[in-house]
Design goal:
Blueprint: E1 6-13, E2 16-22, E3 37-41, H1 45-57, E4 61-65, H2 68-77, E5 84-88, H3 98-106, E6 111-116, H4 121-129, E7 132-136, H5 141-149
């Protein structure tokens, strides 16, 4: 007589679910980590779109904001916390690192990537003190994707 089986679903990405069979009583964790939840903040629509599309191609759950006020609103109302925030240094309503400092207080466990074409030594030092990785513009989208994904990619 064959032992009964139960169905176990393995999640590798939001759009990739694989069904396997396991014996009852031999519970195993089959689900991998769910997709990263990332916020991209940049006032340039084409840059923001490029980043969002590139990250989404890797199965990353991406949301976007065009300015500091929108980013703060999204962070304080999000159903799920953000794992990574990709942030442009210069936004229409904020031109310094004060948004990064505020977000760091609101999201202490989040990784931050600061994008800038204005990476002066002072900016680089202060961003590092706030725990951000600085990515100088222009950059390759694959480089950003590697930074966002960390060891998950």
């Amino acid at each position: 007589m064959n032992a009964p089986t139960c169905t176990v679903y393995e999640f590798s990405r939001a759009d990739s679910i694989r069904r396997t069979d396991a014996e009852p009583g031999s519970f195993r964790v089959a689900a991998k980590k769910f997709p990263l939840h990332v916020l991209v903040v940049d006032d340039e629509p084409l840059i923001r779109w490029s980043i969002v599309e590139s990250l989404a191609d890797f199965g990353i759950d991406v949301e976007q904001a065009a300015d500091a006020a929108s980013a703060l609103r999204m962070i304080t109302t999000a159903a799920l916390p953000f794992d990574v925030v990709v942030l442009d240094l210069r936004l229409p309503d904020m031109h310094d690192l004060s948004l990064l400092a505020t977000l760091r207080q609101l999201l202490p466990g989040t990784r931050f990537i600061l994008m800038t074409a204005f990476g002066t030594p002072d900016v680089l030092t202060e961003a590092a003190l706030l725990g951000a990785t600085v990515l100088n513009k222009p950059f390759e989208l694959d480089t950003l994707a590697d930074l966002v994904a960390g060891d998950r990619h």
